[in-house]
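2024-03-11 09:14:02 INFO receiving multi-entity request
2024-03-11 09:14:02 INFO entity count = three
2024-03-11 09:14:03 INFO echoing inputs for audit
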Amino acid sequence: MAYPANYRYTKEHEWVDVKGDVAAIGITDYAQHELGDVVFVELPKVGAKIEAGKTFGTVESVKAVSDIYAPASGEVVEANDVLHNTPEKINTDPHSDGWLIKIRLANPAEISGLMDAAAYEAYIAAQSKEASA
Amino acid sequence: MTDKIKKATRHTNQNEGLIFEKSSHGKRAFELPPLDVPAADPTKSLGANHRRGGVEGFPEVSEIEVIRHFTRLSTWNYAIDLGMYPLGSCTMKYNPRVNEFVARLDGIATEHPYQPQELSQGCLKILQLLEKCLLEITGMDAITLQPAAGAQGEMTGLLLIRAYHGKNGNPRKKVLIPDSAHGTNPATAVIAGYEVENIKSESHGQIDVDKLRDLVTPDVAALMITNPSTLGIFEERIPEIARILHDKGALLYMDGANMNALTGITRPGDLGVDVMHLNLHKTFSTPHGGGGPGAGPVAMKKILEPFRPVPILVEKEAGRLALEQIRPDSIGRVKAFSGNFGVLVRALAYILAYGPGVRQATEDAVLNANYIRKHLEGVFDLPYSLPSMHEVVFSDALQKKNGVNTMDIAKRLIDYGFHPYTTAFPLIVPGALMIEPTESESREECDLFIDAMRSIAEEAATNPELVKTAPHTTRVRRLDEVGAARKPILRWKPLPARSEAAD
Amino acid sequence: MRYLPKSPAERQDMLAAIGAKSIDELFSSIPERYRLREALNLPGPLSETEVIDFFKARAAENSGGYASFLGAGVYNHLRSVVTDAIIQRGEFLTSYTPYQAEITQGTLQAIFEFQTLMCQLTGQEVANASMYDGSTATTEAVLMAERLTGRSRILVARSVHPEYRDVLKTYAKNSGLQVEEIGYGPSGTLDQKALQAALKDDVAAVVVQSPNFFGVIESLPPLADAAHASGALLVTAITEGVSLGLLRPPAEADIVAMEAQSFGMAPSYGGPFAGVIASRDKFVRQMPGRLAGQTTDSEGRRGFVLTLATREQHIRREKATSNICTNQALCALAATVHLTLLGKEGLREMAHQNLSKAQFALAELEKIPGVRRAFDAPFFNEFTIELPRSVKIINAYLLREKIIGPFVLGTAYPELTKHALVCVTETTSRAEIERFAAALRRALEQPI
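2024-03-11 09:21:47 INFO inference complete, emitting structure
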């Protein structure tokens, strides 16, 4: 699956899609693949404040729980509640329908520190190599 | 031709429904003796607002249907009584039948925990003798039999540690736990109010003693160690580990889940352990029963004795035994009544049957594990090569190359008539195969297991698909765990009425 | 040794195959100086017959031949021989936790049936596969309420079983919970005024028991309303499950913590029993303990698996909902078989016999001068009486007449030294009740 060029990525395998001062956040195709079939997500409520680098929710497969780390700080303006009944969207469509939350950025400059698509693809290629070594 | 032959319907003993689906109004499987006092009027005695007509949806079936229902279900289980159950860290050994018999005796099963202690001397003597035996086996000074299972024993042990440090002025903040530990260890530490700090194992799978020396600060309350570790390897430097902790005022907790490797050979108390729990449903043969009940006694050194949970068993004048309720420094109760007494009875029956000969059981358990290791080494990858005690941990690294993982091999083992080993644990071994045969397996059974494992390794190389789609011989095939977790169905519900017109 | 399936020659052969000269070589990783040189000092070995004789001798030192009026959280009920026959089948008895679903469908389906029965009994939507017992289930229910509300003050009725409260306090001490007790009123039920006064928006749970420790039935709807009005949850403990055969289920409670001992488990000097937690669907992710769920196999057949395991310690480790691992599965199976045998009508009839015998017993005891009923709220199979003198002294007298007297409430409630908790079940015969009443009358006629 292609990594959208206009997104930014973290080492914890989250993506960020910034439109103005609002950023949509999700987990990458690589992350959903590593996790396996997602069965449950736990997301913050609208209005919650999240902080860059801290966890704001969890994604669960049958036998694993993964924390999701905030790529940037801000206030949650929308949560993708559809995922409660159809968590499989994270597997089938991680980069669009499977988005998790949207936040109003507190400090848009934080985004510039993240990887672009090319850098992220190089990063995961290196990770896969390490895993098979 | 074929369409003329009507295929016989599979008998229901292979397709048993839920008991609720057999229910029909008016059937019953149990009759009470007639009431010998005037019948009360429930509405009058209880008040109309407290009354219910009967439990909606409860089954109504006959006795033969109950027998057949549960007997059929039982045939869908694997069990020790059927064959080897090599679940690593679970110690699935033979559960002697006499233990079941004595736990059900009149005068044992019938006793009420609040009956007068002068009428409970038999029960209390059982508890006292079991305490003495377990202290002798562990080399400790004092014990509580109250905890209901290993995890509760762990909690009790950590609460003792907390109380001890608290009495010395500071309960401290952290508990150190190796990355090879069972998941209950960190979960328990949190309940006892401690932060968890993980210690990475060194390259041989042992605790990194040098690193430990740095980690033991005045904030550390204890180290929780499993010995032998979950890799089945004895922590050779445990006396030194104990000294490092003691020098800084910290204590050594030992998870006794693997005591089946040590009983009669060495004693944790002699090794410097301050407090430990025992899983009576592992080392001491009480049946696992599909998940419990167990019992998790906690043995300790003298320094922790004042903090034991109440009540405490004490010997009074003329050998009279009593349960003492008041102890000023006690951590309190962890469970109502006197522990899982019926489980304690079974464990004592096991110990009495062996006596000092229990050492032979340990030797046979270690012999079996090493015999299996010897015959499977090279066929499966052995990530840690230090000597094995009662269990051996391989990895699926060799089979992974053909896309076959430990779970696939485990499922294929079912087709060969064995229960799988423990998969994917300990966490420090990716794709672990954790094999614990116990002393209950004969050489023939071990040989059969070895043959099965070698055969599966060959299949993984030549016909990986066969392994990946296993099991092939069970009543049900691999089950959809993802669907079960996404849309949980956790109880039966009656079908909705067939048509609205009928309402 | 009869449990070990190896001959000396086989042991030697296996050692040779391993390449070890002696069995001691296999223990070489244990430092020499820590290896035991002498055999353990343990009694035995005993033959099977001797093991049985030993325990029969201990049994003879217990309470055989006495009539008992004890309940207080452990009840003597009829048990069919069928229950024991089923749970002693090796396929259930000697099977492990059903992690390998394909070869443990028997245990899994039975757990699913257990969960269903517990939901039907309690009027709740979801129930787990068992906790250790009623006391730990109550504590775990409180911890669950803490997680659900994010609050830490707990209001627990003094009429909750004293040992359940003790266990709660042990767990609470280190989890940052503040446990406060709410007294009882003249009718024996929770003091609602005191509850209202204590209820603030920092309360996670109100914990009551019904029938409560004095035997009387709490009225749950107003308690639930009060708790909910301040955002707290209502936790209801049940020690006597048979009461649910006649009593309205605690559907208003947010979490029910039940002791299932009454369903086919012998008193066994206090255990093993089985705790249950039942709650609402929406709270299931914060529930402790194992859950079996229905699913299908790769060929579309119905089957069962352990599910929602990410709540548990083996996956979530220090963030788990509980540290429970081993539970009371075989006891839960006993409850399942027992309740299936009783069925709807059998349970109702058993409950009705308990109620009738308790009514009869109270009437008989109230005929004795000086004996009076202490609390006037409705009761099920236990009730509190007040005597003109210390219950301990009376019970000592009753023992001489081969009667184990009622529970001495003064041991847990210093203000109730003359109060006794009388329990009668369907197993208590009319003759025993009459003998007890006569003995009590004689006891009270004794000069002080």
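2024-03-11 09:21:48 INFO post-check: Chain C touches chain A at residues 285, 309-310, 315-316, 319 (CB under 8 Å).
2024-03-11 09:21:48 INFO post-check: Chain C has a mean pLDDT of 96.
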